[in-house]
Amino acid sequence: MGEYAISTVKAYTEWKPMLTGLAYRMLGSMMDAEDIVQDVFISWEKTPQEHVRHPKSYLCRMVTNRCLDYLKSAAYRREQYIGEWLPEPIITNHNAETDPSDAFVAKESLTTAYLILLQQLSVTERMVFLLREVLRYDYDDIADIVDKSSVNCRQIFRRAKRSLGDIPEQPLTLSSKQQALVEQFTQALQSENTDQLLDLLSPEAIVYFDAGGKALAPLRPIFGPERISRLFAGIVSDAPPDYRFALCEVNGQPGAIAYTGTQVFAAISFQYCGNYIEAIYIVMNPEKLQRL
Fold it and tell me: Which residues form the RNA polymerase sigma-70 region domain (predicted)?
């Protein structure tokens, strides 16, 4: 019993960050990912160790199965979602020594654009793609986890890669150029300098809002620098006098958290293209901001 308790603690310490990262990429919700992983380890404690030949793969399979069950129930809720749906934002510039999940977060791309692309895949495609592309599992291990043949998994992975197309390469180390763009963006908003804002946006710029019907925000994407700058001018003019921005790393890239007083009211992440901002993702749904 003592060996099993130690094994459970070791499994939790070593694999919880990896399992949480897998579930988050599957679901787009860190809150739900953490709940699923916690539930998996509760079940793991009740599983006789001698029945498990490959603990890591076994835990991955438990997590992916629970994600599958969740997504089946979430499909209806997503159809009923008001406005654009964006992944739950996470701040990723914590100290990895004090937050073990950051050790995994820092190794892989968690950009908002990447997570949105993953949502285009079927659940099975997403599972196989993440296990292969992110966790670097071989096809035999993936086959065991998703209960399909290795040949089938290879085909599913190829199909997923084809569906996603060329995923933009985003450097995992923060670019000073990107940080400067975010600083200039927030300065332009606070100073109501529309000319400066226009200079920062690419000609194909687009902004997405996710408020889930719980905050006032556009229900559809806004396209083009001129329309975006007019929209932000109206938002800023109606903003309370104590609103401010805190610059931080959001989903692995330079971003910002917007506050009124001490209350978070938005998380902002970006997609960059050279010297310009190409996409802006603004999450205002208070249920998705609880962990910030």
Answer: 12-74
Residue with tokens 């300065």: 187
Q: Is the dihedral of CA 77, 168, 233, 191 positive or negative?
A: positive
Place of tokens 């933009």: 168
Tally of CA atoms within 13 A in the half-sphere of 214 that contains its CB: 14
Gap between the Cα atoms of 14 and 255, Å rounded: 29
CATH code, domain with 252: 3.10.450.50
Asked if 107 and 185 sit in the same domain, the reply is no
Give the pLDDT confidence of 212-234 residue by residue, as tens digits. Answer: 999 989 999 999 999 999 999 99
- Composition of the chain by helix, strand, coil, percent to 5: 55, 15, 30
Size of the chain in residues: 292
Q: Is residue 255 a contact partner of residue 239, using CB atoms and an 8 Å limit?
A: no
Phi and psi for 101 in degrees, rounded to 5? -65, -25
**CA-closest candidate to residue 44, choices 86, 14, 75, 82:** 14
Number of structural domains (the chain) is 2
C-alpha 90, offset from chain centre: 7
**pTM given for the model:** 0.87
Are residues 8 and 153 both part of a single domain? Answer: yes
Strand pairing report for 201-210 and 253-260? unpaired
